[in-house]
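Subject: Interface between my chains keeps coming out wrong

I've been trying for a while to get a sensible model of this assembly. When I model each chain on its own everything looks fine, but I need the whole thing in one frame so I can look at the contacts. Pasting all components below, labels as-is. Any help appreciated, I'm running out of ideas.
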Amino acid sequence: MTARPTHIGALVARVEDDRLLSGAARFAADISLPGMLEAAFYRSPLPHARIEAVGIGDALDVPGVSGPFTAADMTDVSPFPDFDEFARPVRIFPLARERVRYVGAPIAVVVADDRYRAEDACELLEVDLDPLDPVVTTDAALAPDAPLLYPDWPDNVVIDFPVDNPDANAEFDGRMAVSGRYEVGRHTGVPMETRGVVAEFREGRLTVWSTTQFPHIARTMLSYCLPLDENDIRVIVPDVGGGFGVKAEFYPEEVTIPWLAMRLGRPVRWIEDRREHLLATCHARDLVLDIEAAVDGDGRFRAVRGMAIQDLGAAEMYPYGFSPAFTAIGHITGPYRIPHQSVGLVAVATNKTPCGAYRGFGIPEAAFAIERLMDKAADRLGIGRNEIRRRNLIGQDDIPYTTSAGAIIDSGSHREAFEETVRVTAERVEHWRADLAHDSRIKVGSGVVNYLEGVTPTYYMTTGHWTAFDSCSMRVNPDGTVVVSVGVSTSGQGLESMLVTLTAEALGVRREQVRVVMGDTDRTPYGLGSWGSRSTNVASGALRIASDLLLDKATRIAGHLLEASPEDIEVYDGALSVRGSPGASVTWQQVATAANIRTVDLPEGVEPGLEASATYEPPGIEHVPDEFGRVNAAATYTNASHAAVVSVDTGTGQVRVLEYIVAHDCGTVINPQIVRGQVVGGIAQGIGGALLEQLHYDEWGNPQSTSFLDYHLPGATEIPAMQVLHFESPAPEMPWGAKGAGEAGIIGPAPAIAAAAEDALSDIGIAEINRTPITAPYVLGLIPGS
Amino acid sequence: MKPVPDPTGRLAVSMVVNGRTVERTVDSRRLLADLLRDDLRLTGTHLGCEHGVCGACTVLVDGRPVRSCLMLAVQADGREVTTVEGITPEDGLSPMQQAFKDHHGLQCGFCTPGFLMTLAGTEPDEHADEESVRDLLAGNLCRCTGYEGIVDAVMAGWGRSR
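Reply #2:
Try treating it as a single job with all components included. I did that and got this:
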């Protein structure tokens, strides 16, 4: 084809924005149906208890109330299936049976004409709970005499995956060992929109509007739990106000609300409030990496070994909450040439909210551990912190490179991104030192870190079920407009715009001709939804195959209409033209009219209709780790280097991020504004997790962070200006070379900020920062004599 | 034994919402946000926390930004209320909405109406530089953008070069 302007990399406005800016978008809470009831849940106030009785109390004095409904009423409901053969079965039931294991666990539900009355009724229930001893930490859970959360288990271990790799152990003979225990604290995604479910059961058919990130998986799970075929269930995802992974779990309320709609014969709506969100939507992180490295005298790392210890909370979460720990093991060596590893994991149940998915999914934890360990080794050997990274980073000569975790790195700009970040950071830290030199209490420092991120991971290790594929189907209407429907589903990232761009690029249609359909199981082909930085990657793969099929047919029709060979037809700007003959051209409307309406005009042997469908499973993904934990679990790998410039107030211990520099490489960039937005937004969340956000529990298992007054999200004054440096190393195996940008930003901030804070205080000399959040009291406690 | 709440204390309210007079009889405890969203179907106003922290529910009451999750509908009696629907032109977008679009000041868009209403009730001259704009925006939480695009949009929407 001749060179022509491309849509890839062009700066174009998002198609989603107008409805979102004008208030015309429709979120779950905006759905209102005739006769709709509203539900409220009675949730456990105790971390660990036996349910003795759920009494109705005076609840029925509230007008229009039905309920309470409990697990005992749900006789036609099956528990969530336990698919993973390696983990203990948790048998999640939508409402608690016999026992509650965390504050916030749903015990009963009531419905009323409005939410006010439903909540009134909930307050009047008389629920008799017999308290049991709570288990609040992993140490307590692993103690020999620990109370058991699941009485039929011998201990509180959900999954145990020890690894003992002799090749890794051998590297420790005669070498310096550097060790640390690195803890990323419990925090989570906290989208501005909470979860919500609306359900309607009419004429034997269930329609569920849900804030889920995976509508097809939600429908499959619903059909497992309710006595309905998948054909009888339609899951619709309305506009979603952020997901970040926490909506890529299938929750008890997603069964309970549809069940109520079926039972009561009326539509039912439940919109989670923020307190419920902080108690009942999955928590995340809460992972300790206890590791040591064998290091040569020149700073080269030879092996890493140790354990990942995951506090899972009550474990009642599907997909399973231990999967981030597997992902952490898979990323423990970062983008460094470390030949061997031996890192296992143990995931333990405690009486806290179950952990699940959050953007980054184990990779931030891995980056925190290996980057902190690298700083420690550099300091011990007297090698600069940047220099030790230079000596270990994967270079272009090494690619393709297989990490000790089994990840196959086929492209990247690891050294280039790092050197550019180092260069820019050195300038900026001098600027800030000069700027703040007047205040002797304020110290300025910087830290540069690197990572790689597996994108489009297999879902098999997370779910025990699905792998990595997704789907696309395209149809050209008789007027030449194009409908593209996909199995991925948006939570606000801009996927609709991305798909419009790729369709315009692939078919040579104008952007305005394209309509995208997603998030509706009746109108889209089966797919796995949006998580794991996968959507651009897998949707573009399926779209490429479908559009090639469509183009093959369209060019045959156009060739026939133009009396030219199909091979000579090129597509651009809404037209199909004979190459080299600008006047010889038909529109998509003419081709689609021939295909659909004027079928008498079709060439011989061409079937009517103009549509195509395809699935795409990225090549090379492995689904099960070997005995040493090695697995190429992702389709491809992005890389980035992050740097924080921070100030530390030596009087208070407060760390402030003054400026943030990132060199980011996610392969081909389709929309630079959207990619930048993903990177910057991810960094902001990472800064929140590094400095502010903490889901704190007291020693008895009572949650202390149940509103935005005590769970602190970063605001406009906490997030600094950012410099984003773009690198593009297209993925050789991927259509268009696009890798995925959804999660990357969140991975770097914690280790970069920790390193920068230590650097700022290097004159004083402080103990290692080895946990997050890096709060002011924590830092103050590390300053000698403070 | 807890007393049964009495939600039946109903009061008539009259207010001007987006330029139209609205008369309703509401439960005395009904929030302004719920009146707007559920009774008037003005669903552009969003509830993010119901504690008055996140700012997603911000509307203008007599021209000043107010958290509609912390105000009772009856407190708006006799007042003038403006929501995001009320600042959106018949065709297209307002200059500030357009600036948000141009500068990628939104992703999921859930918090966006709250930001727009805070800005609609603010005198630009009182926030002369970026630091002051960030202070103003600190009352609204956004989880997607990292605020960069929002700050850029405000500067552009107020006709300032950066």
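Reply #3:
Confirming on my end. The longest strand of chain B covers residues 10-17.
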